[in-house]
Design goal:
By secondary structure, the chain is of the alpha+beta class. Helix content is 21%, strand content 26%.
Amino acid sequence: MQTPVIQEETTGCGIAAVANILGKTYSEMKAIANGLGIYADDTALWSDTQYVRTLLNNSGVSTSDDEIPFTTWDTLPDTALMSIKHQEKDGQFFWHWVVFQRIDDQAVVLDSAAYLDSNIRTDFAEISPKWFIEVHSAA
Protein backbone atom coordinates (compact mmCIF):
# COMPACT_ATOMS: atom_id res chain seq x y z
CA MET A 1 0.00 0.00 0.00
CA GLN A 2 1.25 3.47 -0.84
CA THR A 3 2.47 5.95 1.73
CA PRO A 4 -0.27 8.57 2.11
CA VAL A 5 0.40 12.10 0.92
CA ILE A 6 0.34 14.61 3.79
CA GLN A 7 -1.07 18.06 3.12
CA GLU A 8 1.65 20.69 3.33
CA GLU A 9 -0.80 23.55 3.86
CA THR A 10 -3.56 23.82 6.46
CA THR A 11 -6.16 24.02 3.69
CA GLY A 12 -4.52 21.59 1.25
CA CYS A 13 -6.61 18.50 1.95
CA GLY A 14 -8.27 18.55 -1.49
CA ILE A 15 -4.92 18.73 -3.27
CA ALA A 16 -3.50 15.97 -1.04
CA ALA A 17 -6.57 13.75 -1.52
CA VAL A 18 -6.28 13.96 -5.30
CA ALA A 19 -2.52 13.31 -5.03
CA ASN A 20 -3.33 10.17 -3.02
CA ILE A 21 -5.67 8.95 -5.76
CA LEU A 22 -3.27 9.76 -8.60
CA GLY A 23 -0.09 8.53 -6.89
CA LYS A 24 1.60 11.94 -7.03
CA THR A 25 3.46 13.93 -4.40
CA TYR A 26 1.88 16.95 -2.77
CA SER A 27 4.25 19.32 -4.59
CA GLU A 28 3.53 17.69 -7.98
CA MET A 29 -0.23 17.95 -7.41
CA LYS A 30 0.03 21.51 -6.09
CA ALA A 31 1.91 22.55 -9.26
CA ILE A 32 -0.80 20.97 -11.44
CA ALA A 33 -3.55 22.60 -9.35
CA ASN A 34 -1.88 26.02 -9.48
CA GLY A 35 -1.54 25.65 -13.25
CA LEU A 36 -5.31 25.18 -13.40
CA GLY A 37 -5.94 28.22 -11.18
CA ILE A 38 -6.64 26.11 -8.08
CA TYR A 39 -4.91 27.18 -4.85
CA ALA A 40 -4.99 25.68 -1.36
CA ASP A 41 -5.72 29.05 0.25
CA ASP A 42 -8.96 29.37 -1.74
CA THR A 43 -11.63 28.31 0.76
CA ALA A 44 -13.73 27.04 -2.14
CA LEU A 45 -11.31 24.10 -2.38
CA TRP A 46 -12.93 22.65 0.75
CA SER A 47 -16.44 23.99 0.24
CA ASP A 48 -17.04 23.12 -3.43
CA THR A 49 -16.64 19.76 -5.17
CA GLN A 50 -15.80 21.17 -8.60
CA TYR A 51 -12.13 21.78 -7.80
CA VAL A 52 -11.28 18.17 -6.92
CA ARG A 53 -13.35 16.96 -9.88
CA THR A 54 -11.39 19.30 -12.19
CA LEU A 55 -8.07 18.01 -10.84
CA LEU A 56 -9.12 14.39 -11.37
CA ASN A 57 -10.70 14.97 -14.77
CA ASN A 58 -7.59 16.84 -15.92
CA SER A 59 -5.64 13.62 -15.23
CA GLY A 60 -8.13 11.44 -17.09
CA VAL A 61 -9.95 10.16 -14.01
CA SER A 62 -13.75 10.20 -14.07
CA THR A 63 -16.03 10.65 -11.07
CA SER A 64 -19.70 10.32 -10.22
CA ASP A 65 -21.71 13.31 -11.39
CA ASP A 66 -23.24 13.88 -7.97
CA GLU A 67 -22.31 13.56 -4.33
CA ILE A 68 -23.68 10.29 -3.00
CA PRO A 69 -25.00 10.18 0.59
CA PHE A 70 -22.93 7.91 2.83
CA THR A 71 -24.83 4.92 4.21
CA THR A 72 -22.37 2.17 5.20
CA TRP A 73 -18.68 1.43 4.74
CA ASP A 74 -19.51 -1.86 3.01
CA THR A 75 -21.48 -0.14 0.23
CA LEU A 76 -18.68 2.26 -0.77
CA PRO A 77 -17.00 1.81 -4.15
CA ASP A 78 -13.34 0.71 -4.24
CA THR A 79 -12.17 4.34 -4.45
CA ALA A 80 -14.05 7.39 -3.21
CA LEU A 81 -13.37 10.97 -2.21
CA MET A 82 -15.13 11.45 1.11
CA SER A 83 -16.20 14.55 2.98
CA ILE A 84 -15.75 14.48 6.75
CA LYS A 85 -15.62 17.03 9.58
CA HIS A 86 -18.51 19.08 8.19
CA GLN A 87 -18.95 22.56 9.60
CA GLU A 88 -20.84 25.70 8.72
CA LYS A 89 -19.51 29.24 8.93
CA ASP A 90 -21.49 32.30 7.82
CA GLY A 91 -23.90 30.11 5.85
CA GLN A 92 -21.07 28.35 3.97
CA PHE A 93 -20.40 24.63 4.45
CA PHE A 94 -16.85 23.33 4.75
CA TRP A 95 -15.36 19.87 5.13
CA HIS A 96 -12.13 17.88 5.13
CA TRP A 97 -11.35 15.67 2.13
CA VAL A 98 -10.14 12.07 2.66
CA VAL A 99 -9.82 9.09 0.32
CA PHE A 100 -11.49 5.73 0.89
CA GLN A 101 -9.80 2.80 -0.83
CA ARG A 102 -10.44 -0.90 -0.87
CA ILE A 103 -7.30 -2.78 -1.87
CA ASP A 104 -7.30 -6.59 -1.86
CA ASP A 105 -10.50 -6.51 0.25
CA GLN A 106 -8.81 -4.29 2.87
CA ALA A 107 -10.67 -1.01 3.46
CA VAL A 108 -8.68 2.05 4.54
CA VAL A 109 -9.08 5.80 4.67
CA LEU A 110 -6.12 7.91 3.57
CA ASP A 111 -6.30 11.09 5.63
CA SER A 112 -3.78 13.80 4.76
CA ALA A 113 -4.05 15.69 8.08
CA ALA A 114 -0.52 16.34 9.36
CA TYR A 115 -1.49 16.02 13.05
CA LEU A 116 -2.51 12.34 12.84
CA ASP A 117 -0.32 9.58 14.28
CA SER A 118 -1.19 7.42 11.27
CA ASN A 119 -2.55 8.71 7.98
CA ILE A 120 -3.81 5.25 7.04
CA ARG A 121 -6.99 5.01 9.05
CA THR A 122 -9.14 2.00 9.89
CA ASP A 123 -10.93 3.61 12.85
CA PHE A 124 -14.15 3.82 10.86
CA ALA A 125 -16.32 4.38 13.95
CA GLU A 126 -14.44 7.67 14.52
CA ILE A 127 -14.92 8.93 10.95
CA SER A 128 -18.29 10.47 10.14
CA PRO A 129 -18.63 10.87 6.37
CA LYS A 130 -21.61 12.81 5.10
CA TRP A 131 -21.29 11.96 1.43
CA PHE A 132 -18.75 10.81 -1.16
CA ILE A 133 -17.78 11.14 -4.78
CA GLU A 134 -17.18 7.84 -6.53
CA VAL A 135 -13.89 7.67 -8.41
CA HIS A 136 -14.50 5.49 -11.47
CA SER A 137 -10.98 5.05 -12.77
CA ALA A 138 -7.85 5.89 -10.87
CA ALA A 139 -4.26 5.86 -12.05
